[in-house]
């Protein structure tokens, strides 16, 4: 009796531990695994925790097949599953995988009667007893035409059974139950789209709760089998996700650590005064904030993370920008940045030139003729594509040394960001000082710098997650302070560069932490606009990165679950937010080149007064 209680306690602890574990491929079940193009090995190399094989007893052998017509001498239980498992476990010195304690559940669905199948199965499994639980890492669980619960004790201890939630097992019988399964359709007709109805969800969670109370893992068969359904099943707490799409589910589950994020430091958003927001009065200063790679999904991910609040969500005047390059449906940052900086569409990879690779004037150059000074800020390298488009003219974005030298001829008064290593390798500091431009490679020098100046500190432009701390806000404040007074006007471009980096990396936490950091700079820009009533703030993106979709989230907890369709840019339109006088001009849908045209027209119009 003590041994039975100990077995039940261990089973309960094991199931409880499994239900609280994160979802990895160890919690995936390859349904009808033998129908995969490469049975067993496809699931094994995805590190699945469970595989299923239908078995027929015939001519004193066990054949793996969906029906008797598919029986073949090459497809026996031993050849497809037991021999490969034994060989791999020997190779890995008793483990499924080297240095890993993962177990594999081999769910054997008996298609022929227990009376005819069990003697053959017991004889067959005896040869592999050393790899079978509790001695080894392979747990045999029988389903289908199993012996009755009253007969469980008649078979070896390394054979476990797939129970049913509606069956009342005795404690002795329950000790032999390794899994409890049921048809999903018994509780719901949900097809995997949308959400479960409240009664259906209650029925399913009720089953899961009862099974877990017994200390057993739970599985449902015939569940919807696609990404949205997998997420819902995980939310329900099902222990094994049933699939016929082994590689797809494997990739999805491996990406879980990069897909989920809970923002732990929500911030208060700015309360806008909307000073001159819906009127076309004088504009002396323009702040253009570019969230590189920022699409609507990135924005809403940030809003979700910050508990439903975002500075961007308080803008009243919103438009959409079409981002294609001259030579491609999908732009890169070089062509996207050039379109906004020069008003010209160009080829991907080109900086500050037209489609013929001929230099075209950018906003700082055009505005300088009117006495309007400019600043360029980036939370990444200042020689990267987007910021470079506002001061350089080169046929290829990779030409960072040439881009750096272009700054010596530019009309930009203030340059703040990373890229110190490039400037130093080209010995730019002396050339800048010769032109009366101050240079520093130390962030701590920001407060004492006076325009014109260049401040580049690579250590200060790491990601938020790596400890960047405050960067965009103090950089923006400094540039605004230096350029705001005693002049006809100013133009500041500040880039949240690393929203894009997170999209390329397909890491939701990276995207969200950069998005929320950028949004705090947006709030500061709104405050600056309200402080004088003559500052126009425009917030947009050069393109969207990652094809991000949001599969789940919690506005109260700041939890975001995202899924990426690519590790590159996409072609979707990006929003344009505007705040302050003339913000109405940015409503509608237009080419990204129109952002340049609108800014130039507004600033030069009032510089003449």
Automatic annotation (TrEMBL):
Signal peptide, first to last residue: 1-17
InterPro entries documented for this protein: AIM6_PI-PLC-like_dom, Alkaline_phosphatase, Alkaline_phosphatase_AS, Alkaline_phosphatase_core_sf, PLC-like_Pdiesterase_TIM-brl
Stored Gene3D superfamilies: Alkaline Phosphatase, subunit A
Annotated coiled-coil segments of the chain: none
Keywords recorded for this protein, A-Z: Hydrolase, Magnesium, Metal-binding, Phosphoprotein, Signal, Zinc
Cofactor field: Zn(2+); Mg(2+)
Family per record: Belongs to the alkaline phosphatase family.
Annotated protein name in UniProt: Alkaline phosphatase
Species for this entry: Dyadobacter sandarakinus
């Amino acid at each position: 009796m003590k041994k039975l209680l100990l077995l039940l306690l261990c089973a309960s602890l094991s199931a409880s531990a499994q239900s609280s574990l994160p979802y990895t491929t160890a919690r995936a079940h390859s349904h009808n695994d033998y129908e995969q193009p490469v049975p067993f090995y496809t699931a094994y190399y995805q590190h699945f925790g469970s595989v299923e094989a239908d078995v027929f007893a015939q001519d004193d052998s066990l054949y793996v097949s969906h029906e008797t017509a598919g029986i073949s001498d090459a497809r026996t239980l031993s050849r497809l599953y037991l021999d490969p498992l034994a060989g791999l476990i020997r190779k890995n010195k008793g483990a499924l995988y080297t240095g890993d304690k993962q177990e594999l559940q081999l769910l054997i669905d008996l298609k022929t009667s227990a009376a005819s199948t069990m003697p053959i199965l017991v004889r067959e499994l005896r040869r592999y007893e050393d790899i079978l639980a509790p001695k080894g890492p392979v747990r045999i669980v029988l389903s289908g035409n199993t012996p009755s619960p009253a007969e469980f004790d008649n078979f070896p201890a390394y054979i476990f059974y797939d129970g049913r939630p509606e069956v009342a097992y005795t404690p002795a019988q329950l000790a032999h139950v390794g899994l409890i399964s049921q048809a999903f359709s018994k509780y719901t007709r949900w097809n995997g789209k949308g959400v479960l109805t409240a009664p259906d969800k209650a029925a399913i969670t009720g089953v899961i709760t009862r099974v877990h109370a017994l200390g057993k893992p739970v599985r449902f068969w015939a569940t919807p089998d696609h990404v949205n359904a997998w997420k819902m099943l995980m939310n329900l707490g099902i222990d094994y996700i049933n699939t016929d799409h082994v590689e797809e589910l494997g990739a999805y589950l491996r990406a879980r650590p990069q897909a989920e994020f809970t923002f732990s430091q929500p911030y208060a958003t700015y309360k806008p005064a909307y000073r001159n927001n819906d009127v076309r009065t004088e504009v002396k200063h323009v702040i253009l904030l570019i969230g590189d790679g920022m699409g609507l999904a990135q924005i809403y991910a940030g809003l979700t993370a910050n508990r439903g609040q975002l500075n961007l969500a308080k803008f009243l005047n919103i438009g959409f920008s079409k981002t294609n390059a001259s030579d491609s449906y999908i732009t890169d940052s070089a062509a996207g940045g050039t379109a906004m900086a020069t008003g010209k569409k160009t080829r991907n990879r080109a900086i500050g030139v037209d489609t013929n690779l001929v230099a075209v004037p950018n906003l700082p150059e055009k505005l300088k003729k009117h006495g309007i000074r400019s600043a360029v800020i980036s939370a990444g390298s200042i020689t990267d594509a987007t910021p470079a488009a506002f001061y350089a003219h080169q046929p290829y974005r990779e030409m960072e040394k040439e881009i750096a030298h272009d700054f010596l001829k530019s009309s930009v008064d203030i340059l703040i960001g990373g890229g110190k290593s490039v400037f130093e390798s080209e010995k730019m500091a002396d050339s800048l000082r010769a032109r009366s431009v101050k240079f520093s490679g130390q962030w701590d020098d920001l407060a004492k710098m006076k325009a014109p100046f260049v401040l580049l500190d690579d250590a200060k432009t790491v990601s938020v997650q790596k400890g960047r701390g405050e960067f965009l806000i103090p950089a923006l404040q400094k540039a605004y302070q230096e350029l705001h007074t005693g002049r006809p006007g100013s133009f500041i471009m500040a880039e949240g560069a690393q929203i894009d980096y997170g999209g390329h990396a397909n890491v939701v936490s990276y995207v969200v932490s950069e998005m929320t950091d950028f949004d705090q700079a947006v709030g500061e820009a709104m405050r600056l606009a309200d402080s004088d009533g003559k500052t126009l703030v425009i917030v947009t993106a050069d393109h969207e990165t990652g094809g991000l979709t949001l599969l789940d989230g919690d506005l109260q907890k700041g939890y975001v679950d995202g899924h990426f369709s690519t590790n590159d840019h996409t072609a979707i339109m990006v929003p344009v937010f505007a705040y302050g006088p003339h913000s109405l001009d940015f409503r509608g849908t237009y080419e990204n080149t129109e952002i340049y045209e609108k800014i130039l027209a507004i600033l030069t119009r009032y510089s003449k007064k």
